Amino acid sequence: MCNGCTRRNFLASTMAFALAAVATEAKADIRIACATSTQSTRFQRGDMLGRSGDPAFDSALIAELRRILAVFPVNPGFKYITDNNAFSMDAAVVDGTTGTVLIGLKLVKDLLKPDQGGVSVACVLAHECAHIFQFFSKEQYYDRLDGPTQRLRELHADFLAGYYLAKRMGTAPNAMRLVEKAMIDFGDYHNADPKDHGTPGQRSAALDKGYTLSLGGMTFEDAASEGEKYVRVL
Ligand SMILES: [Zn+2]
Fold first, then answer.
1. What's the gap in Å between 46 CA and the centre of ligand 1?
2. Cα–Cα distance between 24 and 89 in angstroms, integer?
C-alpha cells in the first residue's frame, strides 16, 4: 500500500516540507539524484508547491504515480517544485513515506507538449522512483553504481523506467519511439562532467533494454540486477 501517493499526502503542508528542509540542510550527506544533467536551480523551500494549478494534471500525475508504485517496491512522498528538472532524495518530507520525489513543473509541462499521451512524463516519474529504489534497496544499488560521474546510476534509473513503461503500456512501439526521442534529447556528451547522465544513445539504449526485458516477463528484482550489468558495459 502506498502512503505517499494519496492526495492528502501529496498535498501535505508546506510547513512539513519546511521542517524537512531544515533537517535536510543539517544532513550534509543527503543523497540527491535528478532526471537530467542540465544546470538546474537548486530547489528552495519556498518553491515547494502542493498543486500545479491544473487539477486535471494533478489527478493524472497522482494516477501515474500510483501505477509506478504498484511496480516498484518503493514508498516515497511527492512534491512539486518550480524547476526544469526532477529530483529524488533519501530524506522523507511526508510522514509515513521513505524518500521524496520532487517534480519540476517546468520539466513535466515541457514534456507534455508533444502529442504522446504523457508517456515521457511517466518515464521521468519512473526514473525518479528508480532512484528511490536505488537509495533504499537491500542490494544498495546507489552505492554500487557509484563512479566518477552519475552516469551508471542515471542509466540504471533509465533502464528501470523502461521496465515500468512496458508494464504500463505493453507493446507500444510508437509510444516508445516518442519517449526514447525525449531521452535522446536529455543526453549529452559531457562524459567527464560529474553530473553526466549518459550520451543520447546510452540513455535510449538503457530505456529500451529495460522495456524489452520487462515485456519478456522478467521480475523487477531480476531486472534491477540485469540493469546493473547492462549499464556497466554500455
Ligand atoms: Zn536521475
1. 23
2. 10
